[in-house]
Design brief:
The structure is a homodimer. The first copy, chain A, is mainly alpha-helical and about 200 residues long. Chain A folds into two domains: about 5-65 and about 80-110, Arc Repressor Mutant, subunit A (Orthogonal Bundle); about 120-185. Chain A has helices spanning about 5-20, 25-35, 40-55, 85-95, 105-110, 120-145, 155-185, and strands at about 20, 60, 80. In chain A, helix 1 crosses helix 2 (about 25-35), helix 1 crosses helix 4 and helix 1 (about 5-20) runs parallel beside helix 5. The interface between A and B is large, with 38 and 37 residues. Chain A binds a DNA duplex (28 and 28 nucleotides) through helix 2 and helix 3.
Chain lengths: ~200, ~200
DNA sequence: GTTAGCATGTAAGGAGTTACATGATTTT
DNA sequence: AAAATCATGTAACTCCTTACATGCTAAC
């Protein structure tokens, strides 16, 4: 029922599927993943890990019990690892179109995890995000038309620029969708994550 | 001491300088100003207004006393208006380079209030924001160089795109800075807010 | 006269940050 | 052996949203 913090959990699960890790390391990768500004604090991370361990999504190495709330005594690297339940949860979360699936953060995390998904999932996520942005665009254009007369030049310029940024975002998504459709046609359900890194798309 | 919520207060003060208003109306304009997604709730707005009234930045019409915590009995439109203190506070806040001055929200609000400022202030804000974004760019490029090998193609693409968006933001700011410098040269300290609304810049 | 929208507020709680408190390991 | 950095955690606090509760005013 924690609808917003799903994003953090998803990111954690995604990173742990790649490889088991302890919290400190996890945090660094999380910060890269979530956009590098906005450093996630330990005050968020550790309680989240605790909660996930309590729910059986991950295990803590050293004490393989379901973490009975009392630390064994020593205090050192706790290595976290996905359980079968955790993997299932991750797969569901990646596929589902929950309430936080298409907003900025939710999308970024899902996108960063694309290497672990199949073409169908990727396309669903990209298209869902595109739809969401198109709605936003509509909204912005409508509200612009309504308020055209009543606002000063600067406010107008701010809105114009915001609109442009969203338009570019949509164009970017369109490019990605095309690429995925191509790769989907060539090799159904395969991971095409090993393309050239320099990504030379001539428009 | 409320360092983050300065932004909300600044926005309120800015709108009230334009014209006195009651809360409901204020909220609608605030939502346009702050980007239209992310609707500010009454649960944020009214307590903020109360606090600002308590501190003497604004007055409430109908009961011109400093709001002695007990409403008079009736319940209807409370019209808020800036006090001299409030105007001073606003001027300071617009000029100052506080901790929240250059982040996304802080900048947007200050920009939306440009019509009420002079060229010097506008230039300081635009340049401050540009510096902040340039730092971000540096950071992103550095971290990209450090992690180039260790991340998959999708994460890379996400970073590339993020970088591009910030670069565009900087280019936008450069254009605005040029325009302000021109208008500053032509007419020192005058408000050039009465340009053509259709903004035909053929570029 | 009743629905819809205007208008104001409060209480509870979610999500995260800061600041604190502690201990282990590596580097100098 | 001191300093730096790795590593884990908690408590208090902030800011905001949701959901609720209330009453006024215009339209039909």
């Amino acid at each position: 029922m924690r609808s917003r913090s799903d994003v953090l959990e998803l990111a954690i699960l995604g990173l742990l599927q790649d490889t088991p890790m302890h919290g400190y390391e996890l945090r660094k990768r999380l910060n890269v993943m979530l956009g590098s500004f906005r450093a996630l604090s330990y005050g968020s991370l550790y309680p989240a890990l605790r909660s996930m361990a309590d729910r059986g999504l991950i295990t803590v190495a050293g004490s393989s019990e379901p973490l009975p709330h009392a630390l064994s005594g020593k205090r050192s690297r706790n290595v976290y690892e996905l359980t079968a339940d955790g993997k299932e949860h991750l797969a569901e979360a990646l596929t589902s179109s929950g309430p936080t699936a298409w907003d900025d953060e939710g999308f970024d995390v899902r996108f960063a995890l694309f290497a672990q998904t199949d073409v169908e999932t990727r396309l669903r996520i990209l298209e869902g995000r595109r739809t969401r942005l198109a709605e936003r665009l509509d909204q912005l254009r409508t509200s612009a038309a309504r308020t055209r007369e009543r606002v000063d030049e600067y406010t107008l310029e701010l809105h114009r620029h915001g609109l442009e940024q969203v338009e570019r975002e949509v164009a970017w998504l369109d490019g990605l969708i095309d690429r995925e459709r191509d790769s989907g046609r060539t090799s159904k359900r395969r991971h095409p994550a090993s393309r050239r890194t320099d990504g030379s798309e001539s428009s």
